[in-house]
Design a protein that fits this description.
The protein has about 230 residues and is mainly α. It has helices at about 1-10, 35-45, 50-65, 70-80, 85-95, 105-115, 120-130, 135-150, 155-165, 170-185, 185-200, 205, 210-220, 225-230. The termini are far apart.
């Protein structure tokens, strides 16, 4: 449940602490006047831990929006996935694929297969998604993550680097790659990844979890000279 709460918080931009345990919600009995209102009620249900109410409101938002706004269907699929209704979530993600393939669909379908251990199928789905949306950094990151979890961490390096190239503002991609390099024991490359991300904010070097892991792996007396210079400043 903790992982589900984190997923919901990231999906709908709310704090993890605001995602309550399952139970009845005040918003569940309300009706949204349009798709946006129904989606807001669905989000309120999630904050109150009411998955069934959230699903109902997001289903209503999809019906109200029709096919003109696929974002509502993507939200519905995400909630269904979190509620462990994988088959229903997969159907919604497949609907998103119709017409012009959407990155949310590829990422969602791949997540469903990855979580069930079907890594080969997940990689294939991400490959199709990237072919249709080559400039989407999240899909490249998902491919790196899936390859790493499938036991091929070295295969995740190239897509992880591509995600950074496509979204240079997202620090998460850089620190994820740095952690991957640590797991691969490619410490020099890990350090360069962390340093490039933090070169304008030296304090990040000593506070980020990735660099701390790097120093622990290197051991005392092997601290990179660049860190020594940063600390000296």
């Amino acid at each position: 449940m903790a992982e589900d709460k984190k997923y919901l918080a990231e999906l709908f931009g709310i704090r993890v602490d605001d995602v309550r345990e399952p139970g009845p919600s005040i918003a569940s009995a309300k009706q949204g006047a349009d798709a946006a209102a129904s989606a807001r009620l669905g989000g309120q249900c999630l904050e109150e831990g009411d998955f069934e109410g959230a699903i109902r409101h997001f289903q209503t938002s999809v019906e109200q929006a029709g096919e003109k706004d696929a974002a509502f269907r993507a939200d519905l699929a995400g909630v269904l996935e979190t509620a462990d209704r994988e088959a229903d979530a997969l159907r919604q993600y497949r609907r998103l694929e119709r017409g012009s393939p959407r990155p949310e669909a590829a990422a969602g379908i791949a997540d469903l297969y990855r979580r069930s251990g079907r890594f080969k199928t997940a990689v294939e789905e991400l490959g199709k998604g990237i072919a249709a949306n080559p400039q989407d950094p999240f899909l490249h990151h998902k491919l790196a993550l899936t390859l790493s979890e499938a036991g091929h961490p070295s295969g995740g390096v190239a897509p992880a680097i591509r995600a950074i190239q496509l979204d240079t503002e997202n620090a998460f991609y850089s620190f994820w790659l740095g952690d991957l390099m640590i797991r691969l024991r490619r410490f020099d490359e890990a350090w360069r990844t962390f340093a490039r991300r933090s070169n304008s904010r030296p304090a990040m070097i000593t506070t980020a979890s990735g660099p701390r892991s790097l120093f622990g792996a290197l051991g005392a007396g092997k601290m990179p000279c660049s860190l020594c210079r940063l600390r000296a400043n």
